[in-house]
Amino acid sequence: MGEDAGAGDSGPGSSSIPVRKGPPSDPVGSRAPWEGLDRVRDLNLCEFPRPAVTSQSGKAEAFRALHHRRQLLVLPNAWDVPSARVFEEAGFPAVATSSAGLMVSLGYRDGEGMPRRELVAAVRRIAERLRIPLSADIVAGYGRTPRQVVSTVRAVLEAGAVGINLEDGIPGSSDLFPVNAQVRKIKAIRALAETTGIPLVINARTDAIRRAAGEAPARLHEAIRRSQAYRDAGADCVYPMGLTDAGSISEFVQALDFPTNVMVRAGLPPFAELERLGVRRVSFGPSASYATLGMLKRISREILEHGTFDGLVEGAITHDELNRLAEPREESPPVPGPSAGTT
To answer: Looking at the whole model, is its pTM more than 0.90?
Structure first.
């Protein structure tokens, strides 16, 4: 990507954010994508109160608080309005977007080939339909300079997001941005957030585990070094992409002593073990997109090879349920409190 990558997209010219004054079962093959949510609840991992406020700043505060509880924050990654609403209805306390899932669903490869204006529009569409916090994956921020990246962050804030995921891998390359360059971006993003009154949650991802030079121990050390710098620059959570084994996760968490995000993938320890290791957040990444499209492939094979369509109708939602996913969730009526004078 060039120096001005994303800078020419038609994003908001100036911020409209107020400035703070003063300082189902799977009949075809393996289990369904969302099977196991009850087990997550049994582990006490999703029992967080939903945000009681609807303001953007209130959602941001609630989202930040989820990173500082004893329980692991299980964060699903959606790619459109209905997938985000399914996660909300299931009981997750917040949702994030998946850059890969969202971009591929709109006909773009994962990366920054999708125009920024389309990414922002997709984030806005999802945010307008959710009552819970939304974090936006902005890849590397659509720019190499702090000014360009801040422009992207401002746009997704205006779209309704209260968190971002920012990576240090250079899009279209196997290289990493220099640490100092990434630190300047994070500091600039934090400065922007402080002027808006919205306590934006910055998840700083490093791709050092996959892209740094050297053997596995050296790459882990580089991921720790980078994440410490991002933490000190103002990030709220750090994300060592590709970290899966318990020993390395434990070493990383102990070195950072800071909210750490890992991603669901083959070989990752169970949620209860991650919580024991001190991980504070686990995200789906594109796993839900993989699972959903895998289910469609199995259904297609069933129809074409066996002439049956059980997988297409068993466990399916109804037309009314589908339509409801295009609308904000209905708020549950408040639970009446005890009458005055009762004990």
So the answer is: no
